[in-house]
Design goal:
Elements: E1 21-27, E2 37-45, H1 49-60, E3 68-69, E4 78-86, H2 90-94, E5 101-109, E6 118-128, H3 132-148, E7 150-151, H4 165-174, H5 182-206, E8 221-223, E9 228-229, H6 236-240, E10 244-250, H7 260-266, E11 279-282, E12 284-285, E13 288-295, E14 300-308, H8 313-321
Length: 326
């Protein structure tokens, strides 16, 4: 059971569907309009990014690894993202047609798209069973999230559809389960890291008060340039000014670990024998460009906001609701 910085208990209905969950990728760079790579802005519905890549791979007769993408987008949604191809695919892609995929724009660039090559995602989400009172409560809770930040949990989507992927990951790492498929193995490794991160973040939120994330001596921060560092003092003012963000551990080798008080908490959720590369992830993120539109006749509230890459819109919704969405 997760805990959230903002205390809330608002009942509403949310459905992961192409009509009610819309995601648009925000690229991390402007495309130069010249080069050997074709950049396609693509809209899809009711299919995963992997499914979409497989469709293009089959259509063009190329290996899926030759198609670049910056992030994985939800299946049960309308999502727009950018793909890269060899520029020679342009003529064939102009003729491309598919009931669940639309190529909206194409341009050229000197670089292909790689995982993580995005600034963030813009979300538009419909909530139902909303009345005037609930709309006001949601607006009030959202304003606190915008001010104090959002606990950056990995969403339920990270852990697969079966719900037992964490146990499978532990069995694989202990040698009790053999996993031959490289893609499944990689997925389970990330599940294990994400699970430990979420448990650490839950502990840190429990130690926080009045909706504000508590910082400790020895925390590892990331600055606006993406540099990780551990200062000698607790950077409360810089954090409130959104100049730096505290980070949490995704266990593994060659990773920056916390120190002092922060490390004492982190150690409980660290597997120092995990033999794969580790990372750090922002513990708190700040949504931007928040808008709210209430339709009393439909008892519907439409939210739109932007989150940095890697952050889950469902974590925003869970904080509004005060409990997990599955």
């Amino acid at each position: 059971m997760r805990v959230y910085l903002q205390k809330s208990d608002i009942e509403f209905r949310f459905k992961h569907s192409k009509k009610d969950f819309i995601v648009e990728e925000i690229p991390s760079r402007k495309f130069s309009k010249k080069g050997k790579y074709l950049i396609a802005k693509v809209k899809k519905t009711d299919m995963t990014t992997w499914d979409m890549v497989a469709v293009f791979s089959h259509y063009l007769g190329i290996d899926a690894g030759e198609i670049g993408y910056a992030g994985l987008k939800d299946k049960y949604a309308t999502t727009t993202q950018y793909l890269s191809f060899d520029s020679r695919a342009q003529k064939a892609l102009r003729r491309f047609k598919h009931k669940n995929i639309t190529i909206e724009e194409m341009t050229l660039d000197s670089k292909n798209i790689r995982m993580g090559d995005l600034e963030g995602n813009r979300f538009t989400i419909n909530l139902y069973d909303i009345d005037n009172i609930k709309a006001g409560q949601i607006e009030k809770t959202a304003s606190k999230i915008l001010k104090n930040g959002l606990a950056n949990y990995f969403g339920f989507q990270r852990f697969g559809k079966d719900g037992d992927s964490v146990q499978q990951a532990k069995e694989m790492l202990s040698g009790e389960r053999h996993v031959a498929d490289v893609k499944v193995r990689k997925f389970l490794l990330s599940v294990y890291q994400s699970y430990l991160f979420n448990e650490w973040l839950k502990k840190r939120v429990e130690l926080s008060q009045e909706g504000k994330f508590k910082l400790f001596r020895g925390d590892v921060y990331v600055d606006e340039a993406g540099k990780l560092f551990t200062p000698k003092t607790v950077l409360v003012q810089d954090f409130l000014a959104k100049k730096v963000l505290p980070t949490g551990l995704l266990c593994g080798r060659d990773v920056f670990r916390a120190k002092e008080e922060a490390r004492e908490i982190e150690k409980e959720f660290d597997d120092e024998f995990f033999p794969y590369k580790g990372y750090r992830r922002e513990a708190i993120v700040f949504p931007k460009h928040f808008k709210l539109r209430f339709s009393p006749k439909e008892n519907k509230l439409t939210l739109s906001f932007t989150l940095p890459k890697g952050a889950y819109a469902t974590s925003f919704l869970e904080t509004l609701k005060g409990k997990e969405i599955s």
